[in-house]
Structures are given as C-alpha cells and as structure tokens.
Amino acid sequence: MLEILVLKVEDPGCFWVIIKGSGNFSDNEVDYQKLNSAMNDFYDHMCQDIEIKPLILEEGQVCVVYCQELKCWCRAIIKSIISSTDHYLAECFLVDFAKFIPVKSKNIRVAVESFMKLPYRAKKFRLYCTKPVTLHIDLCEDSAQIVPAKKWDSAAIQYFQSVLRAATQVEAKLCAVEEDAFEVYLYATIKNEKVCVNDDLVAKNFAYYVSPMQNKKRDSLEKPALSIKSTSLSNPAFTLWPMLWQGKDFQAMKNSHGLNFLAQSLPHSWCKDVAGERGPTAVMLDKAMKCDRDPLRDSPKRTCEAKQHCISLREVTRGVESSADWPTKRGITIYADPDIPAASALSQKPNEKPQRLAEKKDYDEKNVCVKLLQFLNPDPLRINGISDLQQLQRLTLGTQHPVMVFRNKIEPCLTIDKSPLSADLKKALQRKKFSGPSPTESYSWPPIARGCDVVVLSHSGNDPLLYLPPLLTILQIGGCYKSLPSRNGPLAVIVCPRWRKAQFIFELLGDYNMSSRPLHPVLLTIGLHKDEAKNMKLPRGCDVIITTPHSLLRLLTYQSLLFLRLCHLVLDEVEVLFSEANEQTFAILDNFRKNIEVEERESVPHQVIAVGVHWSRHIEHLVQEFLNDPYIVITAPEEAALSGSVQQVVHLCLECEKTSTLLQVLDFMPSQAQKTLIFTCSVAETEIVCKVVESNSIFCLKMHKELVFNLKSVLEQWKKKLSSGSHIVLASTDDCIPLLAITDATCVVHFSFPASPKVFGGRLYCMSDHFQSFTQQGSPVECGDKKTKSVLLLTERNASHAVGVLRYLERADAKIPSELYEFCAGVLEAKEDKKARRPLCKHLKAFGFCKDKRVCPDRHYVSTELDMPRKLSDQALPVYGYIQIIPSYISNATNYFGRIIDKHEDLYVTLKAEMNEYFKDSSNKVAVEKVENLGLYGLEEKTFFHRVQVLEMSQKEDAGGLGSILVTFLDEGRTGLVTKDQLLSLPESFRTLPPQAVEFIVCRVKPADGEMEWNPKVTRYIHHKIVGKLHDAKVVLALGNTVWIDPMVHVTKLPNLKTSIIDYNVRAEILSTGMGIDNSEHVQKLKLLCKGTDMPACDGGLGQTTVTSPEKEAAAASGAPQEEAQAPGKSSSSSSSMTDSAHHSPESESAPTRDASASATAPPHQKSLHPQIKWFQKEDVVILKIQIREVRDYRCKYFQDRVIFSASVGDKAYLADLELQANIVKDDCKCIIENHEPVITLTKEKKEPWRGLLKHKNPNVTFDFDHWEDCEEDSPIAKVAHSRSLWGKVAEVVKNSSSSSEDAGSESE
C-alpha cells in the first residue's frame, strides 16, 4: 500500500498525487528542495549573461519555467502555445506541483539534464478498472437507465472530491501501469473507517467495474492516436522518470544498441522494486547514481564545473552559434528558440527548420538508449577496455549475500514454493505476509527439514523463523516416531536463555501450529523448589516444550523419564546459553546424547539445532563432541573468520602515524607466498598507500572507482601463481570488494577503519579460501602458525568503536595490548559522562548491578543534580526511617509505584476531595481545546478524578480529530492511553501539589537463574497480594523519586491484645515462589555509589541507621498522656517494633514502625549510631545480642532499670541506652564476646516473664525468634503466637509500649 497526498483532482480517471512514506516509490522531499534550490541558483545567477532559451517551442516539450505564483523556477511540460504580437504565451503543466499556468516565452528556459534526474514529484493516478456511467433517458420509450459513459459526470467528480477532502489518510494499492498513469485501488480513511473509493463509486452508481482485458480495449479505443502500446510502458521506470529518459518510441529502442541490457537489467531491478523487494541490481544502481546526484547537493558553481554532468558556459555560447551540435553535448539538451539574438538563428533559411527537426528526431531514435544507459551508469561510456556496462554486470553478480557452508554442501531453497515446508505452513507464512526465505533461511531450512544436526550463525540469529518452519514440518510427520515408546513426553525441546524469549517462541508456535496433528506446546518455567519439579505434569499429547536451561535441568533431575521420546533439541541464542549457563547446557546435551544411544532409537531422528549470532569456542566443542556430521551455515563473514581461526591483530597508533605503522605490519621477507589486501576509504588514501608500499620495494596494485577500466589487468596480476617468498599487495577501496570478488587473500590490513560490521565482514571474506576447517584447527602445525591474518589500525578518530573492537578480539582469543584496555576504559568513561541526562539504570536500581554497562543506554552513577530526593510537599522524600505506603501500580515483583501516607496531614486526600467536589459541577468540566505535550490536565475515571500529564501524542488522529494520547497519572504512577475529549482543564489550585506517586523498590532479592526480569507469575502473585493495601516499610535509601525499602510488611493490629502481627513480608513472599534468590549486597552496592557525593542518603553510614523518634500512637495505646508521649520538636509515629523473619542473617534489619509522616524519618545528625539488638529471655535472665562485629573498646554500664552499651568499630561509634521493662541485679550482669559479637546477660530481679524488654519502643531492638521455643511456655507472647494461626504463619510479635518515650536523639548521643 502506498500512502499518498492528493494534489489535484480532475476526475476519478485523472488525479495527481505525491507518494509519501519510505517505500520504493516514495518521494524524498529533501532531494526536491535541493533540486529547487539548485535550479533557482543556476537560472537566476549562473545564466544572467547568457540565457539558455529554447530556439523552438513545441507541445509536449520538457522545459524549465518561472512561476510568478511560486516565485521560483519549476520543471514543466508545454501543453499549448498561443501567439501574440510581441511574444508567445505557453500553457505549461508544472510536473512537480500539478499546476497549469500561463508562461511568457521569455520566462522559458532549456531543461538541463542534471535537473531532470529526479522523477516528477506529481504522479498521475486513476482508479483501476473503474469506468464512468450516466443516466440515459429515452423519451420515446419513457424510460431511464444507467449506461456506460465516455466522461465522468459532474456529480461523480464532486462526490469523489468530497471523499478525498473528508479523508484523514489516503492509500493506494498499485494494480497496473498504463501509459503515463498508475492504475490503483484507492482507500480513504474517514472517521476511523477505511473505505475503498472504487467500491464506493460503484455502490453509489457513479461508476461500474470492467475486467482488465476490457479496460485495455476501452483505452485503446478511446485513444487510438497513441502509437505506444500500454504494455510497452508497463515498466514503472518509464512512469516514475521524466520523458527525457523515456524516449519517444519504445519500440524503436528494441532495435537499438543496448536492448539486451535493458531486457536483462530493468526487469531484475525495477520490477522487483514494484513487488516490494529491492534486488541487488537496484542497490548497486543506487551506488552508481551517487555521482549523478551530486550536482543537486553541491553548490551551483561546482555543479557547472562538473565535467561529466553539466555543460560549461563556453559550451552554451558555442551551442547558440551552432544549433546542429546541441544534441551531442553531454549533460544538456537544448533546441533553438526564435527570439534568441544569435547570428545563426537569425540568418537561417526557411528549409533549415524541417531539416533540423528531422535530425533531432533521428538523434532521439538512435540515442535514447544511450541516454538511459548514461542515467543507469553516470560515468561516460568507454570504447577501449572493459565497458561500464560489463563492470555493472560484474558488480551485480558480486553483491550476492556471502553464505559459508562447512562440512556438507547444501542446495538452497530460494523461494517459499521450493522450500521443504508443509503446504499448511506455507499458507500460514503467506497469510503473515512472509516475504520469502532470507539467504540464511534458504540454506538452513533444507538440512533441518531432513533431520540433520545444524549450526546456524547469522546477524539475524535471534529470529526463531530460522528453524521453526522446517522443525514444525518434520514434527507433523508422525510416521518417523512410531518406534518410540508410547508414553507421554516431548519430541522436541527448545532451550532459550531467558524466559521472555521462551514466551515469544511459545506465542509464535501458537500462530503457526495450524496442522492436522496438533503439537500442544508447553511453556515451562520451574522455580527453585524441588516439589515444583517433582509434581510437574505435562498435558497429554505435548510434543514441544519451550523452556530455559535451569528449568529443564531441574525437570531432568527429578523426571528424566519424561524425555525418553526426545528427538529434537534446539539451542536458541546458543552463544548466550554457553556464556551464561554453560554447565547446565552441557549437562542437557550429555543427557540427550545418552538417550539417543539406545538401540531402539536408531530408526528415529536425533537432531541438535544450534542457532545464534556469534561464534564461540564452546560452539566448536559442541560440534566436535555432540553433533553427528553437522551442517554449519554462517552468513556473517566476521563470525566465519572466527570459526576459521583467522588471526586478529590490532595496532594502536595516531592518525598521523598510520603509514609508518603500515610498513611495520607488512612482511617484507615472507617464508611463503603472501597476498595482502589493504583497504582504504578514499581514492586519495589508496594512492598514498600504493606509493608508500612501492617505495619499500613491494609490488603493489591499486583499485578504486576511477580505475575500473583497469580491472581486468589487476585481476590477472592478482591471480598469477606466486613462488615461495613472493609478496603481492593490492590497495583498494571498499566499494570495489564485490567487483574484485577476491577470496584467496592471506592477509587483510584495515588501513581505514571499517564503516560497519558488514563492511568488516566483507573484508574478511576476501580470505575465505584459507579459513581453517575444524580438523585443521586441531592439528599442531596449523595451531602453531595461523595462515591468515587480519590487521586493524585503530586511531584516535575511531575511539567510539574501540569497545566493539575489544569485544571482538576477546571472542577471537587474540592477544590484546594493555593500551587497548586502558583506551577502552577511557572511552567507556567518556560514554558514561555523555549519559548525564539519562535516568539511572533500572537494573542498577533493582538489583545493584548492570550486566553490560557497555551497551546499556542509561546512567550508572549517582548525580547530585538529578538524584537529589524530590519533595512531596514542603519536605523531601525520607532518606531513612519508617513509613507507611500504599502501592497503586505494580511494575514487577520488586518495583511499585504508590503513595507515602501521612496520617496527620495527608495533602493528597484533601486534594482528591476538593477535585471531586469541584468536578461534580458539570459546568466545571471544561474540555481541552489544544493538548500540549507535558501539560497537566484532569481526567475522569469512573467516579474519580485524577491529575494526569501528557507524555506523548499520536501523530495520526482519527476522523474526529481525537487521536490517542499517552498520559501518566501523577499520583498513582501508572500510564495509560486516553482520547482528547477525556481531558479536562485543571485549575491552577490543583497543580501546586507536587506529584504524589513515588517509586518503591524492595531490596535484597533478585530473579533466580541469572534472569534480569521477573517472571510474570511472580509479578501477578505480588500484585494480587499487595496492590491497594497499607504496608509498613523501612527506608534504606532515597534517590530522585525512588525509595528503596527493606523490609516491607503488612501488619494487622489486635486491639484487644494490644499487639500487632505481621501478615506477610513481601521479600519473603517473593522468595517463597522459588523464582527469586537472596541479593544481600544490593543496598551496600547502591550506597557505595553514593559515596563521594553530597547526597543526604549517605549521612547514616552504610550498614546502620540512627534512632528514630518514638511514636505518639504507641503511647496513646498504652494509656500515657499525649503531652508526655511526644517530645518537643519531634513528630510521632505508631505501631510496634517488628523484625524480618524471612531469612535471618547477621545483617538482618529490624522491621519498620508505622511512621505518621515523612518528616519523622529525618532526625538531626548523630554523634553515634545505635546498633541492632536481638533479645530473648529465660526464667532468670535476659540475653541481648549486639549485632556488630570486630568490636574494640566496648563498655557496658548497668543500673537498676537501665543499661548503657558503647563500642567502636573502625571509625564508627555505637551507643545503646536502654530503659528496661523491669529491674535487674546489676552486679550479676555481664558482657562477653561470642562469635565476634558482644552478648549481654542481664539477671532478673524477679524470676517472672517480661512482657517486653524496654519501657519505650526502640526500632533497633527486636525479639530473637531463633530462641522462641526457649521461652514459649513462660512468656505471654506465646498466647499471641497461638492466636496468629488465624492469619497463617507467625512472622513476629510486636511489643506494646506502656508509656510515652523520651527523645530518641538523646539516647543515641
């Protein structure tokens, strides 16, 4: 489908359009702008002294005219000429604007060929097989009927114009090319509905359909004067390009010189473009045409000086004097105009004009083909040596995609019809508009369909269609599996490195599994729990499993009998599997090899398919140990070079030292015959290299675009047999690689850095004859001295590519200079500096690390400017302490968006109530007239109103002008698509409150199996558990709008028992799914990033938090007066202390208290830190474990109802001042070091259970559940624990305070 813009409508049988988009027929507006600029400069300035006016004006003549309306020179065709007293007036059609304008003869200029190279911008369209009708009234018979008509009715034209005016998008499907017009089916999108205009006109009795044959007959009858048959111009080249290149008589061209070329080249290039596939000939023609397009991109001065493209002003002057020579001038076609004051024109005889016209016609007939050849090949045709035509043909043959097949020969399937696929699968691919097998697919499908072992490496190696169609075909042949045991189990297993890729292939199988024998594919992801693998049951008839290596190995461990029927093992992205799950992948291969060695399986397929992008040494081991006579298909030449053991060498040098480094690289006295290719980027560089090499007595050839005529001689010299110790060097540019078609070079020197990996691979392919096979790689002789070598010169100009070079050299096991590592480190640092405005890496935030910083586009360091905690109201986000949150949007298992709850003054609740009250009045619901990007608006959703910000607006709007708009909900964090009519004007009073949505990340947990994304099963489970619920959390870090919390728990209060119970810990719930593992260094790594910055998040140290203020609500619950509960200047908080019971570790954090406001989490600077303390009691003593290690200079003071502990660890000081629940015998208390940690033993004054340790709650003091059973029978906490069965597993019990607390800051000081 072509997207078009209608310029002018005459009737449905003739309307002019511009083709938009990026297809083969689309117009490049930039080129037309440059063309107009060049034309204006040329005709306004360059031709002021000598006006290039035509000597003859004829109807149908192509010229350049000045348009008064557009104020510029335009290409035009003369339609008619009117004579007047002082000048001629010509009616001209502007071919780029579809306008008819009258032009005086003095404003008409000759059309220079350089300005006629671009196609006409305005294309003539007409409706395909759609003809007009009219109402015929027979007065005699008193009847009326609709009959065919020769011209369109005015009502039909008006309706056709109204449809196009109302359409928001107009598309055309090309059906035929007749004479100078495209015949199309026209589709107009009106009010979000696509209508076929052809059908619409027929349905409304404005037109009728005719068959294609009738259509041609009617055209021939309607226009009998045309001498050119419609079939002659069926080639779109003649419709798209100006008449200057078409010639007057296409039939005459068939007898002229160059017909064979036209017959061979045009159908293979242009016709493929019509079908939507760009052939190799067209690609090479684009390259050949670059020099012809240069005049449009260069200045007018350089345009006129171009020897091969434009005529000089001297030639123009001489041409005026001798009009008979005009047609022979290169690059311009001019015929005399009577009003030019030239001597030859004024003195011509009457009979000279017909003679000149006859000469002109004869010239057109004989040389139109030559002009077309000049257009196809801009360089002048040469008589001696190899012609440009032959060069172009060789160039075309050399552009075939290089495919390297090792071990076995493969006959490729070049079309979908000849492919070894089932008929149903071919139909399914065609329904999906599959364009046909790519070069890689054409070589990989046949051996896979035959059940052979195959290794495929390609730039498109991540595409499952490289192996799925032939694999599905062979699986549908049930007869080859009859000898297998009749039990449940898969026939094929597809192993993917990530669950997301496995899910993609599973969905793809659902699209293409349309056969008579359903395969019942299963997506398998198994967690760490043994029971999950043991209890896994496959559905009956499951023939295909898509899984990851870790999941498959767990299933193999417990249910190996399930895979007795396995015949096909597919390794998708094989290089990633070997790099990230090497042990698991080889264990799977070992198991598969053992299964297929059973005698009963000799008659069934046993196939391994490995598909990937990059070669690695593990693939070599796979081929040698696990594959049986495999087919190896590599379509990436740079990867074939790695598999062929090409020695990779890199030299770092300055740009000014490249030539001297080149001489050091070259072997002047080789032991064997050597052929060295030196690749350069320009003609001048090639000449320099050749001179430098020859100056050192080495025979050097050269090849570039200006020496194409010498190609035959160069190839003869190169192909000569060399004696031992001889050395031949060829310096060439990259554009000559397909022309040379060299494959026997022994050394390639990259004097200029390759522009792309494809160019780099093309260079290495020149040594493909010497790529070593796997048997040769194993021999000690070949391993000791590699025959082929690639030398890369890396300079400061190529700094941006240094990291990619390093990665390639690492995969090649090459010797890498230390300077390259240092250079790459500097490059990476510079790249990281360029990411200053990028957001912090999501993987770094979620897990504390990023797997590949070299390719990650986001920032990996803390920026003081961007990461300063933002403000929710008057105060910034809490950087540590305890908060209450409500998650409203769950991004994944550990990443949520929600709000921080402030019990005392929740500004968002107030705002929400005011917004609901305001918008209840329908008069306040004012729709937005103009939507601005990043603008703030209101949005009604059910019965609630939200604040939203516009993130992105769609470019295409529907018929109503609404379109879809991407918005983010400022106070919830989620995004969504809305329409313009849903947005409401938001008063300024509702905009002042900053967005309340905060990003929360649960710490110390990450996906299992090395995944970087959470499995959707975990995300769904956490979503249903936590969304919309109030949770308590402890803040460990805050940057920007992100708060890291650990732990995050849901607490239930038991008011009758004056206790609180933890329903669940989010981190523990994630771990319980078996899809997550502990990530103990998460927070530590994040805080290390903050070191050296001025972030407030770092004030509290890296491992401990300071004491927060006690709670007002806790004091109120215990009956203490509120005035005594809250110290001056401190905000209060509520709830009991708690601990994370999921995984006890030395650094386990205490659970949070319910903080009433964010301000309570930011106490003043402390001189000492409060240590984490765990306690438990026995009948006569209370034992406190201080959770700090490597203690020195510790002290412990005992009082009757108080104990003070102080210590230092490194440069940190710790202080704990504990006011006890009951009295102790201070003389019997002691403090000792056990397992590198202080342990305090307090002797009770009365041998009775304590209800708690402290009078006032301290968040850093928690109960030690490891000793729960020691005190369960005597402690009143046991009663609470038994009541916990109502909610499930007891996480912990929180002690209730009986009175208000003192100032927490004074305790830690």
Automatic annotation (TrEMBL):
GO terms for molecular function: ATP binding; hydrolase activity; nucleic acid binding; RNA helicase activity. GO terms for biological process: germ-line stem cell division; meiotic cell cycle; regulatory ncRNA-mediated gene silencing; spermatogenesis. It holds the Pfam family DEAD. Keywords: ATP-binding, Developmental protein, Differentiation, Helicase, Hydrolase, Meiosis, Nucleotide-binding, Repeat, RNA-mediated gene silencing, Spermatogenesis. Residues 1101-1171 are annotated as: Disordered. Residues 1148-1160 have a biased composition (Polar residues). It comes from the Eukaryota. Component of a mRNP complex containing PIWIL2, TDRD1 and piRNAs. Component of the PET complex, at least composed of EXD1, PIWIL2, TDRD12 and piRNAs. This is Putative ATP-dependent RNA helicase TDRD12. It comes from Dipodomys ordii.
